[in-house]
């Protein structure tokens, strides 16, 4: 049986909890932590080469993000997302983000928009470099940064929560098939449309992007389900 230790033992440092959380996110994205399965902190800790305490702390952080849920006296269950859940999350995001991008296009300064270009480029670079954790972080910061330009902080928080709940289990499969880069490049297209003050074009682009991401997730989930997984963890 393969183990999480194949990722390398995590050294004891000041931010061990964050390092463990990132390692678990990576395992979840890669499909090494299976939706619906329950994992105990001691088992995960042994495979990561750390004590159970930072694993429990990291799992509590992931629970706040909706990625796992605590199971009394057993550990943590990886939450499952249904097709209907994803459809509904995507619909809500479109209802919020499409008009908000239109408003941001009208009010944001060129300087504010250009400040986000490094993130758009980072999204593409991380996709090409197969850095899925880096990709998701750059993608999160870019999208929330654009929405923040419309001036509604509570709206940004709502979208942030929806993004956490609709994370991409099939992301590794999309990366392996080379389809992630095309999706990543849509961020640069969106930014250029906003800089050109093309509100209608920007709204069409973000609507297409959200639909594209949803269809890619469906394809990725199907591919991940039919592709042999090189790492299977023991459950609690």
Oligomeric state of shown chains: single chain
CATH superfamily of the largest domain: GntR ligand-binding domain-like
Contiguous runs where pLDDT drops below 50 for at least 5 residues: 224-236
Please give the radius of gyration in angstroms: 19 Å
CATH topology of the largest domain: Four Helix Bundle (Hemerythrin (Met), subunit A)
Whole-number average pLDDT?
A: 84
Strand arrangement, major sheet: 1-3-2
For the sheet with most strands, the description reads:
3 strands, antiparallel
Label the overall shape: elongated
Structural class: mainly alpha
Share in β-strands: under 5%
* Percent of residues in helices: 55-70%
Ends distance: 15 Å
Total number of helical segments?
Answer: 11
Indicate how many domains the architecture comprises: 2
Count of β-strands: 3
Order of helices and strands: HEHHEEHHHHHHHH
In the CATH hierarchy, what is the architecture of the largest domain at level 2?
A: Up-down Bundle
Q: What is the CATH class name of the largest domain? A: Mainly Alpha
Structural features, described:
This protein is mostly helical. The chain folds into two domains: 4-80, Arc Repressor Mutant, subunit A, CATH 1.10.10; 83-225, Four Helix Bundle (Hemerythrin (Met), subunit A) (Up-down Bundle), CATH 1.20.120.530. The protein is built from eleven helices and three strands; from the N terminus they run H-E-H-H-E-E-H-H-H-H-H-H-H-H. The protein has a three-stranded antiparallel beta sheet with strand order 1-3-2. A hairpin with a 3-residue loop joins strand 2 and strand 3 (75-78). Helix 4 packs antiparallel against helix 8, helix 4 (83-107) runs antiparallel to helix 11 (199-226) and helix 6 (117-128) runs antiparallel to helix 10 (180-195). The longest helix is centred in the C-terminal third of the chain and has 28 residues, at 199-226. It is elongated, with a radius of gyration of 19 Å.
């Amino acid at each position: 049986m393969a183990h999480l230790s194949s990722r390398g033992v995590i050294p004891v440092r000041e931010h061990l909890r964050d390092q463990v959380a990132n390692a678990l996110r990576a395992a979840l994205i890669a499909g090494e932590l299976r939706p619906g399965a329950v994992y105990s902190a001691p088992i995960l800790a042994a495979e990561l080469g750390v004590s159970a305490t930072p694993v429990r702390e990291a799992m509590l952080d992931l629970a706040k993000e909706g990625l796992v849920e605590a199971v009394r006296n057993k550990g943590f269950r990886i939450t499952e997302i249904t097709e209907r859940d994803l459809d509904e999350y995507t619909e809500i995001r479109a209802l919020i983000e499409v008009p908000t991008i239109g408003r941001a296009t009208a009010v944001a300064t060129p300087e504010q928009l250009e400040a986000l270009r490094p993130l758009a480029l980072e999204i593409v670079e991380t996709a090409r470099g197969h850095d899925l954790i880096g990709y998701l972080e750059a993608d999160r910061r870019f999208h929330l940064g654009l929405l923040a330009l419309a001036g509604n902080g509570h709206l940004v928080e709502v979208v942030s929560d929806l993004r956490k709940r609709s994370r991409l289990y099939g992301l590794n499969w999309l990366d392996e098939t080379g389809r992630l880069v095309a999706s990543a490049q849509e961020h640069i297209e969106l930014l250029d449309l906003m800089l050109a003050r093309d509100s209608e074009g920007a709204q069409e682009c973000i609507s297409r992007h959200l639909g594209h991401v949803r269809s890619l997730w469906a394809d990725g989930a199907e591919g991940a389900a039919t592709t042999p997984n090189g790492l299977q963890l023991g459950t609690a």
